[in-house]
Amino acid sequence: IVRFAGLFQIIHLDIQRKSASVFSVVSTIAPKVPTLFKISILSISGAVILILIAGAGVGLSYLIFLSEFDINYYLASRPDEWTYFWVSAGTWLIIWFFSALYLLGRSFLALPAYIDSNITLINALKKSWEITGSQTIRLLRLLGFSVAIWVLTVFVFESTLLYTVTVVAEWVTETTSRVRPLMFLAGGYFLISQLIRVILGFLGFSFITSLVSKFYFENTMLYAEGRQAPGLSELSSRLGSFITRWIQPVRILIILAIFFVGSIFTSGYMLSEIPDSEHVTISAHRGGSPPAPENTLASIEQAIAEGADYTEIDVQRTADGVVVLLHDADLMRVANDPRRIANVRYDEIRDLVQVPNNGTPPEMRKIVTLNEFLQHSRGKIIPMIELKYYSSDPNLVPDVVQIIQNWEMEEEVAVMSMRLQPLRKLRDLAPVIKRGFVSSVAVGDLSRLPVQFLAVNQSQINSGLVRSAHRQNMEIYAWTVNNPD
After folding, report:
1. How far apart are CA 4 and CA 106, in angstroms?
2. CA-to-CA distance for 143 and 210, rounded, in angstroms?
3. What is the DSSP string of 388-413?
4. How far apart are CA 213 and CA 223, in angstroms?
5. φ, ψ for residue 366, nearest 5 deg
6. Computed from CA positions of residues 126, 131, 134, 140, in that sequence, does the dihedral angle turn out positive or negative?
């Protein structure tokens, strides 16, 4: 917002045939910064409200079509309800998108109206609606076209750079087995890529600001009397003379030297960030890998046979308090049975055989209790038990702890959850049991949580999180990683 205000002021002064100095621009914008901050807050609030409205429509479609069974059933089976959901949600999002776009187009000139005139925000918004009127579609078309060209330009430059670096990297790997030339190349790619983004970002933002400013001023007396904007040929001539002045041997050598030194430092930093990958700890997801049905003795046997370090399982309680292995809230996906685990007794489901059939005996593919699982896995693989909560179940933690203690496996298991309260309860009941927090999306410092490890969505893991966690003697487990790359 402040950046837009500064550029708008420069354009305003240029139309008035006045020179735009740093002092004149800053002295004009500085007193308005508190209100510009207020505009920023209002803009973000408006965006959040619009997003909530979009989410409400999608949520209603979800409740109508996908709320009968666990979402994982619909993701796996794709029944007709799945199609109905996407059609209804997609229709709503299309209506929402064009409505939001129209509101944006009518309100877009409120910011230049406020900067240009000594008026309140409400009056600036009214003025924006007056100016746009029948011109809203034209404004949106111009903005859309400009943003599209901007994005396309960035894409072309980035793609060309990436292709060039890839070709050179292939040649380097064929020429030498040393890592440093590749890292130097990677450092150079990083620097050039950032430079392209900075330059094109500045040019794109400045162009769109100029476009909006022109749109705002074009019906005013000031615009009619002001100097005309340069045409494409004049701009090309100016750009050419600017480039010609810069393309001199001394300047090029200085730029190359800076680039060379920067690449060395960048590649050195990247080398220092490469982790030790001699040993990778493998946790088999939901018992073990397909084709064995998940969370069954068959899947656990497969995980053991394949040499996994851990077998991650999901546990919840039946209506009569038996702790069983199951990921979903109901049995629809794994056994084509619509009943929810929390509503059935264990003896009603103990003979259900899960799908798919991987050729193992049916008793290896049935719903298994945590007690049976620990008996079967003890001494063969480390259990990583995730507590699943689809409603409040205050007895899940005590029951799980009791079963673990019955087998004297407190130091041989790990227990984790997406909820913090059960983990605090686990710490109070059995502090020796290793506990972890499961995170898909998080805000804040996860390393401050009262746990020994974090199970984090792989897309959320970065070097900062790992370093922060390791400083707290906390391990990081990435989920769900399904291929070596």
Report:
1. 18
2. 11
3. P-SS--TTHHHHHHHHHHHTT-TTT-
4. 10
5. -85, 170
6. negative
Model confidence band, residue 276 (pLDDT cutoffs 50, 70, 90): low
Instruction: Report d(CA 309, CA 300) in Å as an integer.
Output: 11
Say if residue 152's pLDDT is above 80: yes
Choose among 449, 445, 446: nearest CA to 435.
449
- Exposure b/e, 251-286, CB count within 10 A at least 16 = b: eeeeeeeeeeebbeebbeeeeeeeeeeeeeeebbbb
Q: What is the pLDDT of residue 275?
A: 64
User: In this structure, what DSSP letter does residue 18 have?
Assistant: -
Determine contact, residues 454/469, Cβ cutoff 8 Å.
Answer: yes
DSSP 403-469: HHHHTT-TTT-EEEES-HHHHHHHHHH-TTSEEEEEESS--S-GGGSSSSEEEEEGGG--HHHHHHH
* Residue 101 confidence (pLDDT): 93
Q: For residue 356, give both structure tokens.
A: 């798919």
Determine the straight-line distance between the first and last CA of the chain, rounded to whole angstroms.
41
Residue 353 DSSP one-character state = B
- Helix (H) / strand (E) element for 315: namely strand 310-317
DSSP H/E element including 52: helix 33-65
Two structure tokens written together for 109: 């000139």
Share of the chain above pLDDT 70, in %: 96
Concatenated DSSP letters for 76-132? HH--HHHHHHHHHHHHHHHHHHHHHHHHHHHHTTHHHHHHHSS--HHHHHHHHHHHH
Contact 284, 353 (CB under 8 A): no
* 391 contacts 324 by C-beta, under 8 angstroms: no
Which residue from 162, 157, 186 is spatially nearest to 172, judged by alpha carbons?
A: 186
CA nearest 212: which of 112, 101, 100, 98? 112
pLDDT tens, residue by residue, 173-227: 999 888 878 888 888 888 889 989 999 999 999 999 998 988 888 867 676 666 6
Task: Calculate the dihedral angle through the C-alpha atoms of 14, 19, 25, 31, rounding to the nearest 10 degrees.
Answer: -90
